[in-house]
Design goal:
Radius of gyration: 41 Å
Distance between the termini: 128 Å
Mean pLDDT: 76
Strand content: 5-15%
Helix content: 55-70%
Length: 443
């Protein structure tokens, strides 16, 4: 029974302590500390003519204590977090530590101590008491903006650290950067409202009349945000895509899509920036689809001199019949032409009836040659065709797809094809055209 009474009395005492509140004990401790420091500084300055410096020294002393407290708290928390996250496999914790999100939170402990010290130190002096609350409020706004910025940067880094390139990253990045813009906008408004002691609602009332000006200032940001959302939803462009922007005659790899600008690394390793909304408002060619299919188009023409075109005589046909790729074609066409030309009245004239030409035969040879190559796609369009005749000759265009989209491999395949075809054309009696070079020297 006696034990129960002691237990009940103890609980009552604890309840009384909580009813009194820990804040009261904290305030009493801070009041006693402030009084002791003030008395100590007054004693130092009592015998001198510098007693008017007491407020400056006391405030400076407390500020020094707060800075030292914040520094020590940062070091201790940094050491603890570093030990805790050393072997952490959570990506977000590592990024939060890297971007100092936790350090920004630690500053708020110092601010809370500053708020507790304020009534016992800064409010004791006339003049200073009027601006101390205002300065603390401004400092809280700055720290809050800094914390939000670091938090957003860390979240963006977590999103970008994913090796998989997705279209949602673009929408997330633009949304995050637009959030930064709004945080700064409202932060500046709160800063001004606190600085001039005006209610935030009144500032919004003034801004309502300046809506057109605000829209003009944030025009690029708004357009960039809308463009980012459109790109993300339509899945047209993502990071590391190879694109061409015809408006700027620009071609390269997309490295970053921000709220207002897009960074493109050109093939000469220089960086170009364009407004993000141009990715939606102008023509953009995305070449990266061919990387996904691992095919790349070859579209190039060989221009032949039309004076080298001729009908194939018996000797030429016998020569072409020995070419493996077209031997079956030559025999088939000879039988076909012989049947058709049976009713020709003047067969001694080669123009009468149907005949093979060296140009037409070479076109079939080029077609067969491309079909025989393993590095040319069999599942995509393969055409060898004549284009409109020009002043320098008749273009024969090769239109096909290489089986490898890598730049170096593709160029090798394309070069091998045209090296062979240009050289092989001589066997068909064809002459490749070359533009005339006019000598402009006045010697």
């Amino acid at each position: 029974m006696q034990v129960n009474c002691i237990y009940i009395l103890t609980l009552q005492k604890i309840n009384q302590l909580f009813e009194k509140g820990t804040n009261q004990y904290t305030n009493e401790f801070l009041e006693e500390s402030a009084t002791s420091i003030r008395s100590w500084l007054s004693g130092i300055l009592s015998d001198t003519s510098f007693s008017f410096l007491l407020p400056v020294l006391e405030i400076g002393f407390w500020l020094l204590i707060l800075v030292a407290f914040d520094f020590v708290l940062q070091k201790i928390s940094g050491f603890i977090l570093r030990m805790l996250l050393k072997n952490s496999k959570l990506k977000w914790t590592r990024m939060f530590y890297k971007h100092k999100v936790f350090r920004a939170l630690v500053h708020f402990f110092t601010i809370s101590l500053l708020i507790s010290v304020n009534p016992h130190v800064f409010q004791k002096y006339a003049g200073i008491d009027k601006i101390s609350d205002k300065l603390i409020g401004l400092l809280i706004i700055i720290l809050f903006i800094m914390f939000i910025f670091r938090l957003i940067d860390a979240i963006i880094a977590v999103n970008d650290d994913d090796e998989e390139k997705t279209y949602s990253k673009i929408g997330f990045r633009t949304f995050a950067q637009l959030t930064k813009v709004f945080v700064v906008f409202f932060g500046v408004l709160a800063f001004v409202a606190t600085l001039i002691d005006v209610e935030l609602s009144k500032i919004f009332t003034v801004l309502g009349a300046l809506t057109a000006v605000v829209l003009l200032i944030f025009r690029d940001s708004i357009l960039g945000f809308i463009s980012g959302v459109q790109i993300s939803s339509s899945k047209t462009i993502k990071i590391d895509d190879w694109i061409s922007v015809s408006k700027y005659n620009l071609e390269g790899i997309v490295k970053e899509i921000n709220l207002t600008v897009t960074k493109i690394e050109k093939f000469d390793k220089t960086i170009s920036t364009i407004p993000t909304y141009d990715l939606v408002s102008s023509e953009v060619i995305n070449h990266s689809w061919m990387s996904e299919t691992n095919t790349r188009r070859i579209k190039r023409a060989i221009v032949f001199n039309v004076n080298s075109f001729k009908f194939c005589d018996h000797e030429m046909l016998r020569k072409f019949e020995k070419i493996d790729l077209i031997s079956d074609y030559i025999r088939q066409k000879e039988d076909e032409i012989k049947t058709i030309n049976q009713n020709v009245q003047n067969p001694e004239l080669i123009i009468n009836g149907r005949q093979l030409t060296n140009m037409g035969t070479f076109r079939i040879y080029a077609q067969k040659y491309l079909e025989s190559r393993d590095d040319i796609s069999k599942n995509d369009t393969l055409v060898v065709r004549q284009l409109q005749q020009t002043s320098i000759g008749m273009p024969l265009e090769i239109y096909c797809f290489a089986n490898d989209s890598k730049f170096a491999v593709f160029e090798r395949i394309q070069s091998d094809v045209f090296d062979h075809l240009i050289t092989a054309s001589k066997e068909f009696g064809l002459e490749v055209s070359q533009p005339f070079v006019i000598n402009q020297n006045n010697d």
